[in-house]
Amino acid sequence: MIEPRLASQIRVAALRRLAEAEGDFVTILRKGDDVAGAMLVIGLVKGRNPVVYDRFPSAGGSWSWEPLTSQDIENEGEIWKYWQKRRAKDPDLWVIELDVASTERLNGLLAAIG
Q1: 3-class DSSP assignment, residue 14
Q2: 96 contacts 113 by C-beta, under 8 angstroms
Q3: Within 44-102, where are the H helices?
């Protein structure tokens, strides 16, 4: 049996509304496929310490966001290079930058959009 799932554009719109309602910032760096595009989130806390999060299936049929890579301020181009490579392999990929006030807030937003 096929499990229904939320379209990517709806998940992105929900993330944007939830974040902006609390004064956080969301930037769509690359728009992906509206229905089935995977999402890559670059999370920042107060504009610093970016971490790339990708969504993976977890036990029990749910999804979880896992950190993939992080960078130092001295090496700002690594995350850009990483998502550019991913995007070249998957043109349906959404790339979203999320700048929030705290790590807890970031984790909460990612959990909310599953």
Answers
A1: helix
A2: no
A3: 77-89
For the chain, which domains are there?
A: 8-113 (3.40.1530.20)
- Asked if residues 30 and 95 have their Cβ atoms less than 8 Å apart, the reply is yes
First to last CA, the chain: 21
* pLDDT tens, the chain, 114 aa long: 556 778 899 999 999 999 999 999 999 999 999 998 999 999 999 998 888 999 888 777 778 898 986 655 556 688 888 889 999 999 999 999 999 999 999 999 999 988
Residue 67 token pair: 């950190």
Element (H, E) at 26: strand 25-30
pTM: 0.87
Rounded Cα–Cα distance for residues 107 and 67 (Å): 11
Q: Are 34 and 9 in contact (CB under 8 A)?
A: yes
Q: Please list the residues that pair with 56 across neighbouring strands.
A: 64
**Angle 75-76-80 from CA coordinates, rounded to 5°:** 120
